[in-house]
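Sanity check. The docking grid for magnesium ion depends on where the pocket ends up, so I'm generating a full predicted complex first rather than guessing from homology. Inputs follow.
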Amino acid sequence: DDLVGVDSLVANTAYLRALEVDRNKLRMQRVPLTLPKPKKSTAPRTAAEKTYESLCEQQPIGRRLFEQFLLTSDPQCVAAAEFLKELSHWSFAEDGNKDKTKQRILSKFCQPQSHTFLSYLTAEDVKMIMALAGKNDEAAMEQMRDATRNYLKGKPFLEYLKSPFFYHFLQWKECERQKITDRYFYEFRTLGRGGFGEVCAVQVKHTGQMYACKKLNKKRLKKKGGERLALLEKQILEKVNSAFIVNLAYAYQSKNHLCLVMNLMSGGDLGFHIYELGERGIRMERVVYYAAQIVTGILHLHSMDIVYRDLKPENVLLDGKGQCRLSDLGLAVELPKGKMICQRAGTTGYMAPEVLKQEYYRTSVDWWALGCSIYEMVAGRLPFKDFREKVQSSEVTRRTLEDDCKFEDKRFEGPTKDIINHLLKKKVLFRLGCRKDDDPRTHTFFKSINFHRLEAGLVEPPWVPKPDVVYSKDTEDFRDNSEIKDVKLDAKDEKFFKEFSTGAVSVCWQREMIDSGVFDEVNKPELNGRGLENVWT
Ligand code: ADP
Ligand code: MG
Ligand code: MG
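Predicted complex below; grid placement will be based on this.
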């Protein structure tokens, strides 16, 4: 027993130390990175990859290098780069600062007598922008952004493609496309266990960046026929790009596992916070904050015609800063265009009446589950199932279909009761989130939240996890020694594993290089003036 305790302690200490390296960007402990020469095969291949939007706006490293190129070009390009920077400040400015930032942008970039005037703006443009400003700032700024984009897409973009900066970009792309194996990471303690294997903490050797690695046992996958679902989960994770859903950073294979590497959520799941830490339930200010992030995540999925189908506090994880993300997209499905689906899926206690009655549905089920989850965060029990109540699922179904939701707990306030009641409407047509043109974000329950700033990560979390606490059960609880003997992997399986193992996910990988400081370390601009072979064909 003592030995187990020591093992656990050692595992926790190593894990906490790695988190600290990541948090404080401790360079000394990283494996240095050198950029390879780009090969012809690395150059962007498809038409979509060669666009200005992809190369200079969407890819974080591409955006940085293009900006650096502009800043070393003629005064017109320098002004354009500075304008884009200030525009992004304006877009995220707090209400009090927004007007001042706009005024500064207008006087610096939209006045012909200013030395940073954007001279590609025609007299017509200037007139229109000044007329719009004050009445509709968004539109005025959009006008300036469009004009700038049109200008940059022309000659500056073509020159960038011939510059050392773009050569450098291709070097980064070469690095991004390397084969990922176990050796790319250090591995730390197990954080949880799922149906096909464990989830453990890992750290990228080059950057110090921590991630969670969900390891799916190949033989177990085959035995239980989970391959198709695993690929589906991977493809959905890869597609979504939201601050409130776990993002996929890498997909690779090792000898025995398929691995999904995602944001590490070191603060534990909301179920743990409701039930395992002190008094049951979560303080109201936190409930509102988490619900706002959950709503934003759900709206992102729905905007891509994806239903989550497994929303519950246990699937909402907190990161080290105290922000939350939806995780476990194993039940999520893409809805066929304009069609409904009819398939029982979800967790007892959170399933909507239309699912229980086996009716056709689309995204409505997630709004019902949100109602259940807000209720649970406040009261430490579900609307139709008490804490630790031993009850048949048929009885939970009956209550869900027939009973009214009761609010006996004193912690329920007016707006909280109201939003839950609207989310728990048994008829889809009356439910919040499902009625024509309604937006749950405008409900008074969320009146303290500025969603635009929330999405940019600019709203301070009401609670921050302690850096010296592991918000997870002991590693011993996750041990699993069962072996799968009667399964043989064949060539068809190998082909599938290869299809799954696509390596680094571009935007995520580039962001990792920038956030960890590795981009700035490696990107020394001594490249300037160096002759360039043209890899662009
Ligand atoms: P399954 O789909 O097999 O249920 P999950 O994706 O739910 O697997 O992961 C299993 C457990 O691993 C979770 O309950 C959680 O405790 C832990 N876990 C999953 N993803 C992460 C993550 N990104 N960060 C930290 N822990 C995680
Ligand atoms: Mg799970
Ligand atoms: Mg799952």
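Relevant for the grid: The first helix runs from residue 2 to 24.
Also worth noting: The pocket of magnesium ion (ligand 2) is lined by residues 194, 328 (CB under 6 Å).
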